[in-house]
Amino acid sequence: MNVVFPGSFDPITSGHMDVLTRASKMFDHVTMTVMHNARKQGRYLFTLEERLQILRDATAHLPNVSVDSFGGLLVDYMAQEQKGIIIRGLRAVSDYEYELQIAHLNRQIGEVETVFIMAATRWSFVSSSMVREIASYGGDISEMVPRASASALKLKFADVYAEREASRSS
Questions:
Q1: 128 assigned to active site
Q2: Which of 55, 53, 27 is nearest to 145 (CA)?
Q3: Is 91 a residue of the active site?
Q4: pTM for this model (two decimals)
C-alpha cells in the first residue's frame, strides 16, 4: 500500500523522521509531499526547492520513500496520484484535535483515510517553528533535526552561528 505524508517541512525535524521511518516499515511506499500555498510564500524560511532538497537528502537512506510537492488541496493530490491514505504525525492532544477535524474533512470531500502515528515521546516538544527559532539565535539543533536540516539551518543563519562561535572563542 502506498501512502502520503504531507506537510510544509520547514524544515523536517527528528519527530517527522521518526514518524516517517516507522511509516516506511508499515507501508510499501511513502511519498513525502511538500504542500505549498502561494498565499503563504513569505512565511517559509526555506524555498520550496530548498525544502524538497533537504527532504531528499534526509530520506536518501529509506528506499521506499520519495519526495514530491503539490500546490492545491491534499485530496486533489491524493486523487491525482491514486492514493487513499494520509499519514499524520501527532505530538500531543492539541495536535490530535486539529488533525481530527482535517481528517474528517478529507474523508468527506476526498474519500481518503488518515492514519495517525504518535511521534516518540522524546520528540513531542520539537516543532519546525521552534527549531527555526533556536537556529535563528545560533542554538544547538543537532539532535532535533536530521543532518540535512541542521546543515541547511546553519547555512541559512551562518552569520549568527559564526558570531556565536567567535564569542565562545574569545
A1: yes
A2: 55
A3: yes
A4: 0.92
